Amino acid sequence: MMSEDCCGKEVSGITDAPKRAALIQRAFRLEWLTIMWMMVETAVAIAAGIAAHSLLLFAFGIDSVIEIVSACVLIWRLSVELRRGRAFSEAAERRASRIAGALLFALALYVVAGAAWGLWQHQGAEFSTPGLILTVAAIPIMYVLSRQKLAVAEQLGSRALRADAVESITCGWLSFVVVIGLVAQLALGAWWVDSAASLAIVYFLIKEGREAWNGGECCD
Question: What are the structural domains of the chain?
Answer without folding.
Answer: 16-214 (1.20.1510)
